[in-house]
Design a protein that fits this description.
Elements lengths: L4 H17 L7 E2 L6 H11 L4 E4 L16 H5 L3 E6 L2 H6 L4 H13 L3 E6 L3 H5 L3 H16 L8 E4 L13 H16 L3 H6 L1 E4 L5 H8 L16 H10 L2
Parallel strand pairs: 1-2, 2-3, 3-4, 4-5, 5-6
Helix pairs in contact: 1-2, 5-7, 7-8, 8-10, 10-11
Length: about 240
């Protein structure tokens, strides 16, 4: 929940122009707050950039008496290709359940968009040695509802909540360990889907650590938070993926 109309137009424009003039070996998706989606879509169309547009969340329902909610149908009207769901802040601050997240997953795919499903453990879980238990349950609870075939058109994001805005840092090896576990968990259900699925990392990726993280075999990209609000930092991360 950052930015104003003016800052959103400026940031999206800067990033679109930078990515148009500097080729990067990565797919780039910008996910502004919902109220700025129309502006972002307009700016991206005007710059003829290859940047894709995504949303930060969507409703679990198609329509109805859900004041303040924004449906996948509405999001899709602004040329969005992706929608983030299950973000740690949604789980913690808004008590979203796996059943709700799975319903959102289905709504997104029904509109031809790709869900970016976030999962991850909190600090107390890691301290208690429960990281893999939490990852397993969050992943399987969604798979049980949507089915493994749905992950052929999805992106998985690992968010170590304990390493986001806390001053603590996950090493590339720690991040890779969880990414590998996620892929192995999926491989036991469907090997092809597991190999093809993009698993991206959302634990305070910065220009300083991006290259090391992206060298890990099971880290296929990044879900960028604070660094995406700075054009130079975000561009450095985009280039690091190459």
């Amino acid at each position: 929940m950052n930015g104003t109309r003016e800052s959103a137009v400026r940031l999206v424009g800067e990033l679109a122009r930078a990515l148009k003039n500097n080729s990067v070996a990565a797919e780039v998706v910008l996910c502004p707050s919902a109220i700025h989606l129309p502006l972002a879509a307009e700016v991206l169309a005007g710059t003829h950039s290859c940047v894709q547009l995504g949303a930060q969340n969507c409703a679990e329902h198609q329509s109805g008496a859900y004041t303040g909610e924004i449906s996948a149908i509405m999001i899709a009207e602004f040329a969005c290709r992706y929608v983030i769901i299950g973000h740690s802040e949604r789980r913690q601050l808004f008590a979203e359940s796996s059943a709700q997240i799975a319903a959102k997953f289905q709504q997104i795919q029904a509109q031809g968009m790709t869900p970016i499903l976030c999962i991850g453990e909190q600090q107390e879980h890691r301290k208690a040695g429960q990281t893999f238990d939490i990852i397993h349950s969050q992943l399987l609870e969604v798979i049980d509802i949507v089915g493994i075939d749905a992950f052929e058109h999805a992106v998985l994001a690992y968010e170590p909540v304990w390493a986001i805005g806390t001053g603590l840092t996950a090493t590339p090896e720690q991040a890779e360990e969880v990414h590998a576990y996620m892929r192995d968990t999926l491989r036991q259900i469907d090997a092809v889907t597991a190999e093809n699925l993009r698993i991206i990392y959302g634990g305070s990726v910065k220009p300083e650590n991006a290259s090391e993280l992206f060298l890990m075999p099971n880290i296929d990209g990044g879900l960028i938070g604070g660094a995406s609000l700075n054009t130079e930092d975000f561009m450095a991360i985009c280039k690091a993926i190459g």
